[in-house]
Design brief:
- The chain is α+β, with helices and mostly antiparallel strands.
- Helix content is about 30%, strand content about 10%.
- The chain has three domains: about 100 residues, Ubiquitin-like (UB roll), CATH 3.10.20.30; about 45 residues; about 80 residues, [2Fe-2S]-binding domain (DNA polymerase, domain 1).
- The chain contains nine helices and five strands, in the order ββαβββαααααααα.
- A five-stranded mixed beta sheet has the order 2-1-5-3-4.
- Bound molecules: FE2/S2 (inorganic) cluster (2 copies).
Length: about 280
């Protein structure tokens, strides 16, 4: 017996014939075929929040949005639902799918620096060097074949979201996170951004305390939480001029912190609403 799963991914309908029962949403998103590498797979156990995406459905009257851990969600349990990744909220260009692969390149063991690397690490290092050269070659090639501003043309060639061409439409949560220096290695950032994106849609009048409490499922190992939470709390209904006075200003802000780059848009296609109605 064959079985087909249909859902909406960043506003587009996706149909998967006979999906494996153990195929997880995070693995599907990050596969070279899909190439949505925004959500990260850090713990793979629902503990860190790095894989957060927004899952939406039509409740009969309006769209309901929930932030979920995509590392815990089987693709088989998505039929008729709407999935939004950070790319769908207006973010960055997709990487070239053929460069999407993970390699172990170093170890934290206490081996002396002069020691010969174990075979596995030598292989991993060679693979990493090869991948790095492939990235450089692909950037060089894109620059050579395009005319005009090289960086802009490179981005434009794979754009699917407005913010991939301009800063217009950039996710305002991501903007505030960056503005407040809340991202270092960036591995956790997408999880924080997507969790907050869902939270402010469902709780537009939330307070600083409520916002802080909403992040107990997100872990950051780099920045500490102060910068991240400051960025998020600038959305709070009780954020005051006094708070603004003490906010650490890390990046030059040509627009002023109170001006967002654009409204946050969760792409909920009308067909998803229609198909949810009997
Ligand atoms: Fe999903 Fe950590 S990777 S919660
Ligand atoms: Fe590196 Fe949070 S884990 S910025």
């Amino acid at each position: 017996m064959s079985c087909e799963i249909s859902f909406y991914l960043n506003g587009k309908r996706v149909t998967i014939p006979d999906p494996a029962p153990d195929l997880l949403l995070i693995d599907y998103l990050r596969s070279p075929e899909i190439g949505l590498a925004g959500p990260k797979k850090s713990c793979g156990q629902g503990g860190c929040g790095a894989c957060t995406v927004i899952l939406s459905h039509w409740n009969g009257e309006k769209a309901e949005h929930r932030a979920i851990n995509s590392c815990l969600r089987p693709v088989c349990a998505l039929n008729g639902l709407v999935v939004t990744t950070v790319e769908g909220t207006g973010s960055v260009r997709r990487p070239n799918p053929h460069l999407l692969q993970h390699s172990l390149v170093s170890s934290r063991s206490a081996a002396p620096t002069t020691a010969t690397l174990p075979h596995e690490l030598q292989v991993a290092e060679a693979a990493s060097r090869q991948k790095s050269n492939a990235v450089l070659a692909s950037v060089k090639e894109a620059r050579e074949v395009q005319t005009g501003s090289p960086v802009f043309r490179l981005v434009a060639s794979t754009a699917e979201q407005p913010s991939q061409l301009t800063f217009e439409g950039m996710n305002p949560v991501a903007y505030r996170l960056a503005l407040n220096n809340g991202s270092q290695c960036g591995y956790c950032s997408v999880g924080f951004v997507m969790n907050m994106s869902e939270f402010i849609i469902n709780h537009p009048e939330s307070t600083k305390k409520e916002i802080e409490d909403a992040f107990d499922g997100n872990i950051c190992r780099c920045t500490g939480y102060r910068a991240i939470l400051t960025g998020m709390k600038t959305f709070a209904s009780n954020w005051t001029a006094e708070d603004e006075k003490y906010r650490m200003k890390c990046l030059p802000d040509p627009t002023g912190a109170s001006q967002l780059p654009g409204p946050l848009v969760i792409p909920f296609p009308p067909e998803a609403r229609a198909s949810a109605n009997p």
